[in-house]
Amino acid sequence: MAKLIDGKAVSAQIKEELKETVAKKKQQGITISLAVIQVGNDPASSVYVNNKKKACEYIGIQSIAYELPEETTQEELLSMIDDLNGRDDVNGILVQLPLPGHIDEDKIINRISPDKDVDGFHPQSVGALCIGQPGFVSCTPAGIIALLKRNHIEIEGKECVVIGRSNIVGKPMALLMLRENATVTVAHSRTKDLKEICKRADILIVAIGKPKFITEEYIKEGAVVIDVGIHRNENNKLCGDVDFASVEPHCSAITPVPGGVGPMTIAMLMNNCVESVKQ
Ligand code: NAP
Q1: 119 included as an active-site residue
Q2: Residue from 15, 52, 212, 220 carrying the catalytic annotation
Q3: Atom of ligand 1 nearest to the CA of 229
Q4: Where are the alpha helices (DSSP H) in the chain?
Q5: Which of 132, 180, 207, 238 could form a disulfide with 155 if both were Cys (CB 3.0 to 4.6 A apart)?
Q6: Ligand 1 first shell, C-beta below 6 A
Q7: How confident is the model at residue 269 (pLDDT cuts 50, 70, 90)?
Q8: How many helices (H) and strands (E) does the chain have?
Q9: Are the C-beta atoms of 248 and 275 separated by less than 8 Å?
Q10: What are the tens digits of pLDDT across the range 100-159?
C-alpha cells in the first residue's frame, strides 16, 4: 500500500512553527500584517479569503481586510495598492483572484511591490525564482516542496514530470524541482505520448485541472504521485486530477484529495507573510 502524504498534518505542523516565530517577533516589538483585498463577492473567493483571515488570526498575523464593491475601477484598485505599498505597517499584500472582468489582473499583480508580493505572482518574484535569487515563491508549488521534504522523499537526481504549465502551479513547480536538483520534464496539452513520458517519472506532479484524468497506465511502479487538482465529482465530493483508486496501488507515496496539497497552500502563504518581514 502506498504511503499517504498527509498535507493536513504537515500544514498544521508548519502553522505551529509559524505561530511560535510570530510570538517571538511580537516580544521583540515586531508585528506582521497582511492586507487582503477582495473585489466583488464571488462566493468561492469569499471562502478562500475567510480561510486566509482565519489562518492569520491563528498564527498571530494581523489581517487587514478590504472588501471592495464589484464596480471598483482598475484605477481605484491601483491607487489602493500604491497606498499599501507605501505603508510601513503593511508587510504583505494579497489581491484575491479572479478579479471582475473589467480589471486587468496582470496590471494589478505587477503593481504590488515585489517585497510585499506574498502570493509570489509578480514577474520579479518569478524571475528571481528562475535565476536562483531570493524572492517570494508561489504558495502551492512551495507547499509541494515542503510536503516532499517533510515526508523525507528524496528529490535530487530523480526524474520528475510536471503535468501543467500554468503561471501559478506548473511553471513555478518545475523551477522549484529544478532548484532541488531533479531532472524535470514539463508536459502540457500539446505533449505527445503523455503516458510514456509520465511512466518515466519517479515523482509525478499533476496539475491538469481535469478530474481523475491520470490512471494507472501513466504510473511507473513505485512512483511518488502529487495531485494538485481540486474538483467536485458527480456526488459533490472532492476529487483530484488523479484517479486515486486506480493509481494508489502502484505508487510508493501519494497525496489524497482532500487533505493533500490543498491545506499546504495557506500554510505557505502564512510562511511568506512571516518571511515578508525579512524581505
Ligand atoms: P490551468 O491554468 O487550467 O492549467 C492546466 C494545465 O494543464 C495547462 O498547462 C494545460 O496545458 C495542461 N493540460 C490540460 N489538459 C491537458 C492534457 N490533456 N494533457 C496534458 N496537459 C494538459 O490550471 P492550474 O491553475 O494550474 O490548476 C490545475 C489544477 O490544480 C486545477 O484543478 C486547480 O483547481 C488546482 N489547484 C489547486 C490548488 C491547491 O491549493 N490545491 C491551487 C491551484 C490550483 P496548456 O498550457 O497547453 O493549455
Answers
A1: yes
A2: 52
A3: 32
A4: 7-27, 43-59, 74-86, 105-111, 123-130, 139-150, 170-179, 194-198, 244-247, 262-276
A5: 180
A6: 140, 163-166, 168-170, 187-191, 194, 207-210, 228-230, 241, 261-262, 265
A7: very high
A8: 10, 11
A9: no
A10: 999 999 999 999 999 999 999 999 999 999 999 999 999 999 999 999 999 999 999 999
Q: Which listed residue (115, 119, 227, 241) is catalytic?
A: 119
Residues pairing with 183 in the sheet: 159
237 grid coordinates: 465530493
Alpha-carbon distance values, 77 to 37, 65, 68, 273 (Å)? 9, 14, 9, 21
- Residue 107's contacts (CB-CB under 8 Å, 6 or more residues apart) are 74, 78
Amino acid type, 227 = D
For residues 203 and 153, what is the distance between their CA atoms, to the nearest angstrom? 9
Q: Give the CA distances from residue 3 to residues 158, 213, 223, 225, 255, in Å, rounded to whole numbers and listed in that order.
A: 18, 21, 11, 10, 9
